[in-house]
Design a protein that fits this description.
With 124 residues, the chain is an alpha+beta fold. The chain has helices at residues 2-22, 31-40; strands at residues 43-53, 58-63, 67-81, 97-104, 110-117. The chain has a domain at 42-117: Copper binding periplasmic protein CusF (OB fold (Dihydrolipoamide Acetyltransferase, E2P), Beta Barrel). It is elongated, with a radius of gyration of 24 Å.
Length: 124
């Protein structure tokens, strides 16, 4: 009888604690958590700038594989030349080659996380 009691106790304990282990952590509203989730969801793009809208803070980029996409530029977007020089949205012109990372927001907006202007270089 004792082995059955021990086995029943172990199974009951496992059944009661398993749902607690499977729960996901509570979402965090901290900037670090938001940045980490944005970087984890980062997608890549590259192509030729077809338009820049300084008022709407957007750039439209076209390439043969991905077609044309419009990216929102936010205060958090890191804008640089490929050599690392910091630039502004005003420095980006139609015809420039750009590449970088973006995230798709819940409303469908494509938010640029990084924009590098100039030919893509390979890291050594």
């Amino acid at each position: 009888m004792k082995p059955n009691l021990v086995l029943t106790t172990l199974l009951a304990t496992a059944a009661l604690t398993l749902p607690l282990c499977a729960q996901s952590p509570a979402p965090s509203d901290s900037p670090a958590a938001s940045a980490a989730s944005s970087l984890a969801a980062k997608l890549h793009y590259g192509g030729t700038v077809s338009s820049v809208d300084a008022t709407a803070k957007t750039i439209t980029v076209t390439n043969k594989k991905q077609g044309t996409k419009t990216f929102a530029i936010t205060d958090a977007t890191k804008l640089t030349k490929t050599d690392g020089t910091v630039i502004t949205l005003a420095d980006i012109k139609p015809g420039d080659h750009v590449h970088g990372g973006y995230d798709t927001k819940p409303d469908g907006t494509l938010e640029a996380l990084t924009v590098k202007s100039g030919p893509k270089t390979t890291e050594k």
